[in-house]
Amino acid sequence: MSALLELRNIYRRYPSGDSSVTVLDDVSLTIRAGEMVAIIGQSGSGKSTLMNILAAWTRRATGTILLPGKHSRAER
């Protein structure tokens, strides 16, 4: 089956005072046609951040997002 969506090496950090908090650390994911996917985890583990990146609501991440016929490199 072909990939509907592919994430490669996604990182996301949020500022926290004088430092930053890493929410997504080198996340790679492939979702293929016909697959059902559930994103689960503890509070604060990055589920909403990942969903916002998947929906392209936030681009402030690093890594690559691949969609059929499209290619999007996240900001650095």
Automatic annotation (TrEMBL):
Alphabetically ordered keywords of this record: Transport
One Pfam family recorded for the sequence: ABC_tran
Superkingdom in the source lineage: Bacteria
Keyword Cell wall biogenesis/degradation set for record: no
Transport in keyword set: yes
Molecular function as annotated in GO: ATP binding; ATP hydrolysis activity
Domain ABC transporter: from-to ranges: 24-73
Similarity field: Belongs to the ABC transporter superfamily.
The protein, known as: ABC transporter domain-containing protein
Organism: Morganella morganii (Proteus morganii)
